[in-house]
Design a protein that fits this description.
Elements lengths: L2 E3 L1 H13 L5 H19 L9 E6 L3 H15 L3 E6 L8 H9 L4 E3 L5 H6 L2 E5 L13 H9 L3 E5 L28 E5 L2 E2 L7 H5 L1 E5 L15 E3 L4 H4 L12 E5 L7 H13 L3 E6 L4 H7 L4 E4 L3 H7 L7 E4 L5 H13 L3 E4 L2 H4 L5 H5 L6 E3 L3 H7 L1 H8 L10 H12 L2 E4 L3 E5 L5 E5 L14 H14 L4 H19 L7 H12 L3
Length: 512
């Protein structure tokens, strides 16, 4: 399991190791400092071959203690190192104070910034504030400006200063002059990635992310109630071996809109078929049948006028999952969604099937059940959960700030079903609080997914896996992972129609 933990869980993991006598705080600080230097030289090997200049910015806490270790090790490698500190050295925590005492060199103030040194540095190490930051970077505007003007590479220790480690939000960006965040080219964190590295502004602020081992119990922090895990491939979710008949892989029903509105549902249908559903049927009003037939071959088609017709169609128990919303229209969604949910089948609700209930979200929530999956993007989330969206939009003034993970967990609890909140930092949550993060960031960045129709394909992927019998959380996680992987394998120039066609290559990569 690739766990993503909170700042509090990280502190608890360190405290547990120290309490058990496995390590001291100074040991952890030494390991962290050495890990940053090693990661920095691995990222830019040329820096190891000749003397270079570094400026290390040290804060008033243990993150600053890591900075003094880094300065000492760089100096031992022959670097010209300048250290600038923030805060009263007499108030440093004991371990950080010991590391400052071990630094054999001058310490300048951070404010005003050592402008000449910053402009001539090859590396600036941001060890000002780490995962425990709870307030904006007040008064550091000159430092941010000087760094922005410097050609130096910026290396952040744990998180770029100013970034909330739990939410990925920059603290105090609406707080006036002197607030904001340092932007790093490389961020080195310890033991486990933190949620904020992947959420919101985290990836843009962190640059490249390296997670370094500092000798803690590998499972520390994973048992924390707020722990996440990154979405991971599960080959069994996609494996069709061992069954010999199409109906053994389920029958997905995709409900489409009227004439001229069927493109989104066709994308969903193609996605459901490619992900592994044994059969896929598209159901649309009779006037739209011919245009869909002209574009679909393997997907079967049925005329379907209204909710009463859907109820009759669902007398056929071989339909195992439904997808409603893409290109459906609000009126048709309000007619069909109650019938689909009343059937008890696994159901994916996307697009119009969500927005059609914007005036009365509780009416939708009252009909939902545990086999449903909601797949809102930001606008649709705000229509169903306006109070949660408002909290996410409000300025983050203190940390830990309200996060997309918390919002999605609360939405799933309120709706009583799985919620997949889309975006580059997609979060999937179940009503019981389980959550998975499917982030298209760092090595899995897929900016090409920002294209019309990609969400319709994702809805189809989820529906196809639900049709095959996967539980809602598992289906949503597997679909989200495959969605990003398909985009990455295609690369630039991607359009939504390409995503299902990349799945065979994704599956071969899993050894299927």
């Amino acid at each position: 399991m690739t766990a993503v933990i909170t700042a509090a869980a990280m502190r608890a993991a360190e405290a547990e190791a120290i309490a058990l006598g496995r390590v001291t705080g100074r040991d952890l600080m030494e390991r962290a400092g050495r890990a940053v230097v090693a990661a920095m030289l691995a990222e830019w090997p040329g820096l190891a071959r000749a003397p270079h200049r570094a400026v290390v910015l040290c804060g008033p806490g243990n993150n600053g203690g890591d900075g003094y270790v880094i300065a000492r090790h760089l100096a031992a490698e022959g670097w010209e190192v300048g250290v600038a500190a923030l805060g009263d050295p007499a108030r440093l925590p004991p371990d950080a104070a010991a590391m400052r005492a071990a630094w054999d060199g001058p310490v300048l103030p951070v404010v005003p910034p050592p402008a000449d040194a910053l402009s001539e540095a090859d590396i600036v190490v941001d060890a000002l504030f780490g995962t425990g930051l709870a307030r904006p970077l007040e008064g550091l505007g000159p430092v941010l400006a000087a760094l922005a003007a410097s050609p130096a590479r910026v290396v952040a220790v744990d998180v770029p200063s100013g970034l909330c480690a739990d939410s990925g939000r920059i603290l105090g960006t609406a707080g006036g002059p002197g607030t904001g965040s340092l932007r790093a080219h490389l961020t080195v964190t310890f033991h486990r990635a933190k949620a904020g590295h992947y959420l919101a502004e985290g990836p843009a602020a962190c640059g490249r992310l390296v997670v370094a081992d500092i000798g803690l119990d590998p499972h520390s922090g994973e048992r924390d109630a707020e722990a996440l895990r990154l979405a991971a491939p599960e080959p069994a979710a996609f494996d069709k071996r061992g069954a010999g008949h199409k109906y053994e892989h389920g029958h997905a029903l995709i409900l489409a809109g009227g004439p001229g509105e069927g493109g989104a549902a066709r994308l969903s249908a193609r996605g459901a078929l490619r992900i592994g559903a044994g059969l896929v049927t598209g159901a649309c009003p009779l006037p739209a049948l011919s245009e869909n037939a002209a574009r679909l071959d393997t997907v079967m088609l049925r005329p379907l006028h209204d909710g009463a017709a859907l109820a009759r169609l669902l007398d056929d128990r071989r339909f195992t999952a439904l997808c409603l919303g893409p290109g459906m229209g609000y009126a048709r969604a309000r007619d069909l969604v109650p019938v689909a949910l009343a059937s008890g089948r696994a159901v994916v609700l996307d697009a119009d099937a969500l927005s059609a209930w914007a005036e009365d979200p509780r009416a939708l929530f009252a009909q939902l059940h545990g086999a449903a999956v909601l797949t809102p993007h930001g606008g649709e989330f705000a229509r169903l959960f306006p109070d949660l969206a408002a909290r996410l939009k409000a300025p983050a003034t203190v940390g830990p700030a309200w996060s997309k993970v918390e919002a999605t967990r609360e939405a799933a609890r309120r709706a009583g079903c799985t919620v997949l909140f889309k975006g580059p930092d997609t979060v999937i949550a179940a009503p019981d609080g389980r959550a998975v993060l499917s982030a298209a960031a760092y090595g899995r960045a897929a900016p090409w997914l920002a294209t019309a129709g990609s969400g319709d394909v994702l809805a189809g992927f989820i529906c196809g896996l639900l049709a095959r019998g996967l539980p809602p959380m598992a289906a949503a996680e597997a679909a989200a992972w495959a969605h990003v992987e398909a985009a990455r394998m295609h690369g630039p120039g991607l359009i939504a129609e390409d995503l299902p066609e990349m799945l065979p290559q994704v599956f071969r990569g899993l050894g299927l």
